[in-house]
## 1
Amino acid sequence: MFETHTIVELRKKLSVARAENKRVGFVPTMGYFHEGHLTLMREAKKRADVVVVSIFVNPTQFGPNEDLEKYPVDLKRDRAMAESVGVDILFTPSAGEIYPEGYATSVNVEGIADVLCGRSRPGHFSGVATVVAKLLNIVEPDVAVFGEKDWQQLAVVRRIAADLNIDSEILGVPTVREADGLAMSSRNTYLSAGERKAALVLAKSLRIAQEMVDKNIRETAEVERAMRDVIEAESLVEIEYLEFCDPQSLAGVAEIESDTLIAIAARVGKTRLIDNAVVRPG
Ligand code: PAF
């Protein structure tokens, strides 16, 4: 596996691959890999000849009181894991490489970036949109792979790709869960054993929602009440939002008449977790 910290070296390597008519796949990450990341890399590998993975803990997507300083890092372990699934190029830029002296541009997405996590994390999606637009411009992949666990992020990325004429396919991959249902996340490492157990109510409430929809319950208010009852019974978990939306526009819905995204953000102790599912009637 080839590793570089610089855009110039990365582009040089990619221009050789492109001259050989190779398809380029890309998985942008913030590192500290788990099975969810490896699944994205395997999907990229299936669809491309050369797979690039970036590891960059992007400072502009963290708010002033968020976990930038303590975000977990283990480059040695990440390198070995990326190599184990056949990643060809690891791009590990410094903050100065991505945001050099004088850097002054940001990408803002209106509408879909303002709801759900956008309300409680002002500036977050601008940071994500900016770095993803930059990374897509640097790598120019044929296909870029993102997890559906961050459903809103994926919607924002699809929007910027369409709006900024970025010519890469944006592929969403279903959330990878632990055997007990917990959605995989690098932030799960912050959880104590008790918190980790408590966090299972998020996935449980989403399963209950699908069961209710299977029983022809269509009022989101009724499903929401049942979900909140399950989550609120767990004293370590505090809901930040629990919303029913159109999966594409993220506009709120009152009746589950077609595929509906149920998105949750909650604090489990001090850790903020998100989870979601698309429920399908009939
Ligand atoms: O999902 C992530 O890990 C990050 O938000 C991303 C897409 C790599 C941008 O920094």
## 2
Amino acid sequence: MAESPQKKRHTELKRLIHHHNELYHTHDKPEISDYEYDRLFQELLDLEAKYDHLDLTDSPSKRVGGEAISAFQKVAHRKPMLSLANSYSTDDILEFDQRVKKFLRKDAPVEYFAELKLDGLSMELIYENGKLVRALTRGDGTVGEDVTHNVKTIKSIPLKLKSKNPPDLLEVRGEVLIFKKDFIKMNEAYEEQGEDTFANPRNAAAGTVRQLDPKIAASRPLKFFAYALGEYQGISFDTQKEITEVFSQFGLPTLEEELTVKSDEPDEIVNYYKKIEKLRPKLEFDIDGIVIKVNSLPLQDDLGLVARSPRWATAAKFKPEQAQTVIENIVIQVGRTGALTPVAIMNPVKVGGVTITHATLHNQDEIDRKDVRIGDTVFVQRAGDVIPEVVAVNHDKRPKSAKPFKIPLECPSCGEKAHRGEEDAVLRCENPVCKSKIKESVKHFVSRRAMNMEKVGDRLIEIFIDQHLIEGFSGLYKLKKEQLLNLERQGEKSVDNILKSIEASRKTTLARFIYALGIRFVGEQTAKLLADHYVTIENFMKTSQEELETIPEIGPKVSASILESLKNKSFQKEVAKLSEMLEFEKSSRSTEGPLSGKSFLVTGTLPVKRDEAHEVIEKNGGKLLSGVSSKLNYLIVGDDPGSKVDKAQSLDVKIISWDDLLKML
Ligand code: IVH
């Protein structure tokens, strides 16, 4: 018997949704927007409601989505973590109110509590007798993954509830996320280190929580907001609003009250939706809508749930702000590390108040997946409200002549064949004297956080190299006034300023210099560590694999990259030239001493001044850290210490007194 068209479509939808579920939940790499996903899901639900000959046994409508991945211990939730029915229009808010009243057989108004729908990763924190004992991801809704080791590194999450008389059990549900400004900073740092960047804050947060090594989570700016209850014992609640108030008293981060609303007037909820949609670009973090909950917990119980979502709550989402524009060209940029990045040049278009003219297409796989071609009309949006992104092609508008785009296998700058490493997503130009690579390296060398030559801009560097005034970093310090005066549009005054800013950069720190050299994977933080460890450039240049391995924060990938640079003859020559020209500030830190190789942090009031304590530690070869993490060896505790002690205990960091430290000397 022939398959009905509905059945065929149903099978296709099941396959598609399973596929996108896995991409989203298991691999943190969604390929379609939430909006597109929700449309597919709605189509599936509509089909299932209309036809009864469909096979529902493996339908995603029966589950929340996302298999728990295997690297973590799987733990069943005491109460399932549900998902929310959602919609994209204000009419649906009114319909939700109607449904609730009808189900409760109520004519009188029902009170709602509405708040932001945070666009992060849902998380369950389990507190037993006030102590954080476990953190679980949602997983498939029934079974989550134990990610306690990573969640404990989130500074705003209390390891102990603030309460003299904590409940026997409290399961706190909420969202782990990364603020927009932190996300941008973090991506910039990865970009500088030649590492892959994240598409948006949500992916970055989800990717971080799923790391096996808690050091990675500790180094990333994760935040948490609590908004719902799981199981609880030894405490009671009457309303949804009260839940957030009690959470807040316990020291758990919750959304500011101004960002929520309580009302029994559906129209007020609609107004709140409109207000938040306007506010959205100004918020510090990503949201994708609002969540409306019946405020009374007894009524929530009466309402219960259907399939995958509670009847007492719904999400009203915002449509992502998108626009359409034409791709005029795809150009290949050569980065400092030789990475060839395709960039779409587009007809300028406004999205969310900002004009977009170009967007990175990342790599060939990404171009193939979206099948983006020159001449295509595309939908663009700003990922995480910030980074321009090509979402999809409008196939109806594809010109007949448009051909699939292939990144050329040669470097567009020097013409040498580019290579793609085993673990690399991008092609790289490996020619050490490629002009574009040199230009980008010099731009990095002079940048603010590196050598900080304020008056030497990108344009000038391109001219210097195109006109053969310099070949590398050291050439900058040999530039003559006459050479610069010969350049177009350079007057006496601006030339003096340029030379002054080059001159001023000679006085620098070893950390800045190591960072400026642009060794792959050596960002600012790593450069500081290296400078702290080696103290002089000579020590650094003659280091060995064995010595690099003694620095706890330096992994095999970074260490291999450093060694590769150090054994390169022209790198050696350049560093030798530069070290003659530069003057490094003396480091107060000694690398030798009884505390060498150990890290310390002070908390509370010590018998000596804080500064003195720090000096003693550094003089004896110890290293100071800025926060409690698994990297910390010793927490030195004085009078009235704060929450650092709890955190240290939970991470098995040794806790000592100032006297204990003096004994170590
Ligand atoms: S309440 C029964 N409140 O949305 C659901 N969820 O689609 C109880 N979410 O997995 C959840 N912000 O990750 C609730 N203010 C908020 C939320 C919120 C975001 C997420 C949550 C959940 C998903 C449901």
